[in-house]
Amino acid sequence: QVQLVESGGGLVQPGGSLRLSCAASGITFSAYAMGWYRQAPGKQREFVATIFSRGTTDYADSVKGRFTVSRDNTKNTAYLQMNSLKPEDTAVYYCNADRFSSYWGQGTQVTVSS
Fold first, then answer.
1. Which candidate, 53, 59, 104, 101, places its Cα nearest to that of 80?
2. How far apart are CA 4 and CA 55, in angstroms?
3. 6 φ/ψ sector (left φ>0, alpha ψ -120 to 50, else beta)
4. 89: helix, coil or strand?
5. Cβ atoms < 10 Å from Cβ of 84
6. What per-residue confidence (pLDDT) applies to 91?
7. CA atoms of 4 and 37, how far apart (whole Å)
8. In a 10 Å sphere around its CB, with 0-12 CB exposed, 13-18 middle and 19+ buried, how is residue 74 labelled?
9. Can you tell me the distance from the alpha carbon of 23 to that of 50, in angstroms, rounded to the nearest whole number?
10. How far apart are CA 105 and CA 48, in angstroms?
11. Mind giving me the DSSP string for 30-78?
12. Beta bridge partner(s), residue 23
């Protein structure tokens, strides 16, 4: 059974930082591309960042230079370091594992507000 469990969300002031984690089980983690997506209230889910199995990364233009995606294959965990957070980053953040099949976590809330 595949499980992706996100953690690390919360309330942070504008300009602050958070690090999200996504712990995976039930998959050969190192073979999967690990992505982060987000969904704000009333909006569609959107791509944030991804790290491929060989370590190549890709980012949405809105987060480039502020967010960093990484992975630790020894811990079966992906991370999203979020710096210089803005109110418009407020959303539920989802982890995705993608190879021949695609799996999703349950999401973690990130709220950026003063």
1. 59
2. 19
3. beta
4. helix
5. 13
6. 98
7. 13
8. exposed
9. 15
10. 15
11. GGSEEEEEEE-TTS--EEEEEE-TTS-EEE-TTTTTTEEEEEETTTTEE
12. 5, 77
Residues 73, 62: Cα–Cα separation, whole Å: 27
Strand 18-25 versus strand 10-12 pairing type? unpaired
pLDDT in tens, 17-46: 999 999 999 999 999 999 999 999 999 999
Tokens 């803005």 map to which residue? 86
Instruction: Return d(Cα 78, Cα 95) in angstroms, integer.
Output: 8
pLDDT in tens, 55-80: 999 999 999 999 999 999 999 999 99
Residue percentage of the chain with pLDDT more than 70: 100
Q: Tokens for 79?
A: 């991370």
How much of the chain is helix, strand and coil, in % rounded to 5? Answer: 5, 55, 40
SS3 97: strand
Tell me the sheet residues that pair with 97: 34, 103
